[in-house]
C-alpha cells in the first residue's frame, strides 16, 4: 500500500506497538513524526527508520502537556510541509505500567493518570493536528482503544474505562470534522505480546486468550500494522466514525 505523500504523527512510538506503526507507515512511504516521552529510545527508532531509507523525525513529547503537543505538531508540519494523519497510540500499559488490580484497589491518582495518558492525550493530539488537516483539505485520525472495552475483564477498570471513552470521542470527532473531510476511526487491538523482554508471566498472560480466538495464536504488533496503514491510505477514504477490532476474532463489536 503506498503512503507516499502522507505525513503522519504516531504517538507512543518509542516502544511496542507504536514503534511497529511508525516503522510500517514509513516503509510504505509516509513521512512519520514520532512523538514519545522516552526521548532517547524514540530517537533510536527514528534513526533506524532513516537508516532503512525512510523519512522520520523524533520529537520528545509528553502527550499530557498540551503546549508540548501543539509545538510537536507545528514542528512535524513544518518538517514535512503539512500533515495528513495522526495515530493516537500512546498509553499507560507496559512502559508506563498499569496496575492490574480490581476496582476497589485503584488509587485516585492512577485513575486520573489513566485518563490523562490514554484519553486526554488523544484529544490533545487531535486538537493539535486539526489546523494542519483542515489546511490539507482532510486527513485521517486513528484512536487506539482496546478489545478489553468489549470483554470487560476483571482488573484495570480505570484503563478499560479510559479506552472506552475513546469510542465516544472518536464518534464526536468524526461528526464534528467530517465537513473538513477529516476521517476519525478507532481501532481495538486484542491482547498483544508487545513487551520487549517478556518474562514468563507476560508470556502466560499473552497466551491466555489464544484458545478464545477464532485465529488461535498469540497476537503480535505486526498483526496491527496493515489496518493502520489502510486507515492512513486513500483506500479507506469513505470510512469514518468506525470501530475496528483486530483481535483474531475474540470479540464482536455492538450489542
Ligand atoms: N499490548 C496490548 O495488548 C494492547 C491491547 C490493546 C490496546 N493496546 C494499546 O495500544 C497502545 C500501545 O500499546 P503497547 O503495548 O505498545 O504499550 P507500551 O506501554 O509498550 O508503549 C506505550 C508507549 O507510549 C509511550 N508513552 C507513555 N506515556 C506517554 C506520554 N505521556 N507521552 C508520550 N508518550 C507516552 C511510552 O513511552 C511507550 O513508548 C496503548 O495505547 C495500549 O493501551 C495495547
Strand content: 15-25%
Q: Tell me roughly what share of residues is in helical segments.
A: 40-55%
CATH top level? Alpha Beta
Please state the CA-atom Rg, rounded to the nearest Å: 17 Å
Query: How many domains in all?
Result: 1
Give the terminus-to-terminus CA distance: 33 Å
**Largest sheet report:** 7 strands, parallel
Number of helices: 8
> What's the CATH superfamily, by name?
NAD(P)-binding Rossmann-like Domain
Q: Globular, elongated, flat, extended or rod-shaped: what is the shape?
A: globular
Instruction: Name the ligand types.
Output: nicotinamide-adenine-dinucleotide
How many beta-strand segments? Answer: 7
Structural category is alpha/beta
CATH architect. name: 3-Layer(aba) Sandwich
Low-confidence spans: none
What is the spatial order of strands in the main beta sheet? 3-2-1-4-5-6-7
CATH topology (fold) name: Rossmann fold
Mean pLDDT: 97
Series of H and E elements: EHEHEHEHEHHEHHE
What features would you describe in this structure?
The structure is a single chain. This protein has 8 helices and 7 strands, in the order βαβαβαβαβααβααβ. It is of the alpha/beta class and 255 residues long. The protein has one domain: NAD(P)-binding Rossmann-like Domain (Rossmann fold, 3-Layer(aba) Sandwich). Strands 3-2-1-4-5-6-7 form a 7-stranded parallel beta sheet, with helices on both faces. Helix 1 packs across helix 8, helix 3 packs parallel to helix 4 and helix 4 packs parallel to helix 6. The model has no long low-confidence stretch (mean pLDDT 97). The structure holds nicotinamide-adenine-dinucleotide (NAD).
Amino acid at each position: 500500500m503506498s503512503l507516499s505523500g502522507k505525513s503522519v504523527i504516531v504517538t507512543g512510538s518509542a516502544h511496542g506497538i507504536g514503534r511497529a506503526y511508525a516503522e510500517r507507515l514509513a516503509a510504505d512511504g509516509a513521512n512519520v513524526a514520532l512523538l514519545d516521552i522516552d526521548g532517547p529510545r524514540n530517537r533510536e527508532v527514528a534513526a533506524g527508520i532513516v537508516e532503512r531509507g525512510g523519512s522520520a523525525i523524533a520529537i520528545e513529547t509528553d502527550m499530557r502537556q498540551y503546549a508540548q503537543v501543539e509545538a510537536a505538531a507545528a514542528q512535524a508540519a513544518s518538517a514535512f510541509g503539512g500533515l495528513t494523519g495522526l495515530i493516537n497510540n500512546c498509553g499507560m500499559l507496559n512502559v508506563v505500567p498499569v496496575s492490574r488490580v480490581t476496582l476497589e484497589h485503584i488509587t485516585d491518582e492512577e485513575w486520573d493518570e489513566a485518563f490523562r495518558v490514554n484519553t486526554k492525550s488523544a484529544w490533545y493530539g487531535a486538537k493539535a493536528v486539526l489546523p494542519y488537516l483542515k489546511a490539507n483539505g482532510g486527513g485521517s485520525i486513528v484512536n487506539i482503544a482496546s478489545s478489553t472495552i468489549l470483554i470487560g475483564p476483571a482488573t484495570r477498570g480505570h484503563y478499560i474505562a479510559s479506552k472506552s471513552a475513546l469510542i465516544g470521542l472518536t464518534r464526536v470527532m468524526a461528526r464534528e470534522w467530517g465537513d473538513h473531510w477529516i476521517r476519525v476511526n478507532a481501532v481495538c487491538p486484542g491482547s498483544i505480546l508487545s513487551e520487549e523482554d517478556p518474562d514468563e508471566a507476560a508470556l502466560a498472560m499473552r497466551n491466555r486468550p489464544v484458545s478464545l480466538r477464532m485465529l488461535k495464536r498469540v497476537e503480535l504488533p505486526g498483526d496491527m500494522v496493515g489496518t493502520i496503514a489502510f486507515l492512513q491510505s486513500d483506500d479507506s477514504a469513505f470510512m469514518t466514525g468506525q470501530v475496528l477490532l483486530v483481535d483474531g476474532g475474540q470479540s464482536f463489536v455492538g450489542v
